[in-house]
Design goal:
Strand order of the largest sheet: 3-2-1-4-5-7-6
CATH topology: Rossmann fold
Radius of gyration: 18 Å
CATH class: Alpha Beta
Largest sheet: 7 strands, mixed
Shape: globular
Length: about 250
């Protein structure tokens, strides 16, 4: 399975996360190679990850509140010939168990959800209920320290201090200001809801900092940036300042 196509920072972000997702999908079962997994992509939108996962031969249910995103998902799945393995339903974490049976899901992708959902605690409890005991949870959240650095570098010093001092449990949530987590905070949140964090990956350590012009003008710059991101993904020191944290957890 090829990496998601494209160049530039967006493709680099997707490439690093896809590498981690591909690895956990491959390791998600002890059954013979080729077994079909039931994958739930909560907030999966237009299918940027769901479609590649379906191309690996697995069944994917995408639960997303946006009808426009789900329409785009249907088109993408049909274009890639996997529409028979992907089902998109309009919903969110609150009504998740209306769309999947409890205790049946092998892999849950929960990317960019805990930052904006009404209640992360309720969402994780519902996700836990949907999963098989041997299942795998993939969580991606915004990194708090990276946001502090970005705001300080942009000259928004008071905002940087506010983000630094406001933990996700008390942070006001708006579309432009999602919850942000440190590695310890997201691991503790998962642990409080019965999950064990197996690995924490750093995503977007450099991709948001390298100017787009560099990637557009320098030959192979996008590939070099992707390789650099992958090189530091498992280093805890870089996770502390990554714009996005990816956690692989088990129930």
């Amino acid at each position: 399975m090829a990496e998601p196509p494209g160049t530039g920072p967006v493709a680099v972000r997707g490439g690093v996360l896809w590498t981690a997702v591909r690895e956990l999908i491959d390791a998600a079962t002890d059954h013979p190679a080729g077994d079909e997994l039931l994958v739930l992509d909560l907030g999966g939108g237009t299918g940027g990850l769901a479609v590649p996962v379906a191309e690996l031969g697995h069944r994917v249910t995408v639960v997303d509140p946006s009808p426009d995103a789900l329409a785009a998902l249907d088109r993408r799945a049909a274009e890639r010939g996997v529409d028979d393995r992907i089902g998109g339903v309009q919903g969110d974490a609150a009504d998740l168990l209306d769309h999947v049976d409890a205790g049946t899901v092998d892999v849950v992708l929960c990317h960019g959800v805990l930052e904006v959902v009404d209640d992360p605690d309720d969402a994780l409890d519902t996700i836990h209920a949907a999963m098989q005991p041997s299942g795998v949870l993939s969580v991606a959240v915004a990194g708090r320290y990276a946001a502090v650095l970005a705001k300080a570098m942009a000259g928004h010093l008071s905002e940087a201090k506010s983000v630094l001092e406001t933990p996700p449990t008390t942070a006001p949530v708006t579309p432009s200001r999602p919850r942000r987590y440190t590695p310890d905070e997201v691991v503790a949140l998962l642990r409080a809801h019965g999950f064990t964090a197996d690995r924490v990956h750093a995503v977007r350590v450099f991709a948001d900092l390298v100017p787009s012009a560099v990637l557009d003008l320098e030959p192979d710059a996008s590939r070099a940036l992707l390789e650099l991101e992958r090189s530091v993904a498992d280093m805890p020191a870089f996770a502390a300042v990554a714009a996005q944290l990816h956690v692989v957890a088990s129930p």
